[in-house]
Amino acid sequence: MADLAHMRTCVHKKSKNMKKGIATFTLDSGKCPKWLFTRMVKLGREMSRVLIEEFGPDEFIRRIGDPVWFQSLGTVLAFDWNASGLTTILTAALKEAFRQREREWGVFICGGKGKTSLKTPDEIETWGQRLLLSEDHTHRLAYNSRMSAKVDSALVQDGFQLYHHAFFFSKNGAWTVVQQGMNQEKRTARRYHWHSENVQDLIVEPHSGIASQSFSHHTLNLTAKSGQKNRDIAVEFMNSNAVTVQKDIQLLRKHSSKLSQMVSFKADGDQMTLLNLENTEFKVHPVVEENFWHSRYLERMLLKLVSDKPGSYENLLATKGVGPKTVRALSLVSEVIYGAPASYMDPARYSFAHGGKDCTPYPVDRLTYDHTIEVLSRAVRKTSLTPADKTKALQRLNGLVIA
């Protein structure tokens, strides 16, 4: 293990934008009318059947992992394009549409909103037994479900609390996660998309799509590639020994009163500035809002990790009891004491509300949008719906066209 003491520097590097991630919408209230939900199930069943027959189950799951495609499908099924309810109702409608047809179509949907989301791993295990999948395969799917939720609640600290988690998978092993969090204060919701084909690493930039109406300038993003050194130091710190950990905790605890303005301490009589929090590349640091170092629970959690020797950042995150506060504290130790900066760039990239001809904050990918509309239009025409229902669906789809 490298000597951590030699890494006490104060070098900062600018973080690069992630290319993958998140969707943000206004927060809904109330329930979807029964008549609308019934129609969404009916149309969703027909659309899914046609798409799976044409492209296969794995491709259907891949498309669910694309936020533009997912959003377009929800709009075709008659839900408001910019409402948070599109995520939860579309998922529920598809789950109902697939009921009793899962084996025939080769697509399985687990989880949902609220308490149902907590049952996702159990539902995956149940399907694994029914389909006679190997234990390793089933457990890996359930593990991916749990880890995706942990990543988006602990590593992407954007102020949104997860309340919806759905896991789509095929017997072949393709899987997609669609989960959503809410920010009660801002009355907005964010949707996070994952797809197995895009996930090279569960920790480093694992998301498959990005679409957001709002962007934050002080999101602690521990999935960014640019934060690899920050994660490495956190793991090395936890793989050290209890004496080193307690020493650094005491160091930060001793000087925590100064951290809201400047992180510094005196070494050998000289003032050493570790991190100036004013007029730098970020304006708000999590340490301003909470004092980690007087939490006995956090100290016990860190000492447990030292005892367990997690070995990797993924193992560290997977440890029971590790949540946002623990990873935030480790990130701060890595940055303040060992000079390994984290990323504070919001991982959101695209915007349904603000993308387009003004290119703010980013230009819309016209080719992707046009192709999505073309595929869905063709699927609508191939369904066995009445001509009137087809016309209504196509009108809603045409409303997505960007001038």
Q: Topology as H/E string? A: EHHHHHEHHHEEEEEEHHEEHHHHH
The level of helicity is 40-55%
Q: What is the beta-strand fraction?
A: 5-15%
Determine the mean pLDDT: 79
> Count of DSSP E strands?
10
Q: Tally the helices: what do you get? A: 15
How many domains would you count in the coordinates?
A: 2
The best one-word shape is elongated
Describe what this molecule looks like in 3D.
This protein is an alpha+beta fold and 403 residues long. It folds into 2 domains: 4-17 and 225-336, no CATH class; 22-214 and 365-398, no CATH class. Helix content is 44%, strand content 15%. The chain is built from 15 helices and 10 strands. The chain has helices at residues 34-55, 57-64, 67-76, 85-98, 102-105, 115-118, 120-130, 135-155, 228-238, 242-254, 296-308, 313-318, 324-336, 366-382, 387-398, and strands at 22-26, 107-113, 156-157, 161-170, 175-183, 188-195, 207-209, 220-221, 262-267, 270-276. Strands 1, 2, 4, 5, 6 and 7 form a 6-stranded antiparallel β-sheet that branches. Strands 3-8 form a two-stranded antiparallel sheet. A two-stranded antiparallel ribbon has the order 9-10. Strand 4 and strand 5 form a beta hairpin. Helix 1 packs across helix 2, helix 3 runs parallel beside helix 14 and helix 14 packs antiparallel against helix 15 (387-398). The chain is elongated and about 75 Å long. The termini are far apart. The model is unreliable at 1-24, 260-285 and 353-363 (pLDDT under 50).
